Amino acid sequence: MTLRSASVVAFVLAALPCAALADTIVLPLPKGAKAETIRVAYDCGAFGHVSAQYVNAPPVALASLSFKGEFVVAANVIAASGARYAGGKYIWWTKGSSADLYDVTLGEGAAPIASCISGT
């Protein structure tokens, strides 16, 4: 698949707050698909801040998250309401201007490790 025959989503990691990351991920999309990137900063109280970058290009929906020196790329998964993303050991679940971060290693019924509100 060439750049002329497919739309391409470029996920530029160097633009994110983690200076150690300087690579690019490119995902080919079906012809005619258009990508939308949204950046959101979340205040998570005592947990600190979470920077999120959402890349929506149907049928692909991804979120990259930066928090406490960690970087996570998560894919959108089925949710009863809101948008739920899973990546590594984390679940990032957003609804409106709020979001919760879960660590799945703490168990299925565990409370979120961070409850956040978007600032932008």
Automatic annotation (TrEMBL):
Signal sequence segment: 1-22
Residue span, C-type lysozyme inhibitor domain: 42-103
Pfam family, one: MliC
Keywords: Lipoprotein, Membrane, Palmitate, Signal
Keyword Signal: yes
Domain of life: Bacteria
Protein name: Membrane-bound inhibitor of C-type lysozyme
SUPFAM superfamilies: YdhA-like
InterPro entries, alphabetized: MliC, MliC_sf
Organism listed in the record: Ancylobacter polymorphus
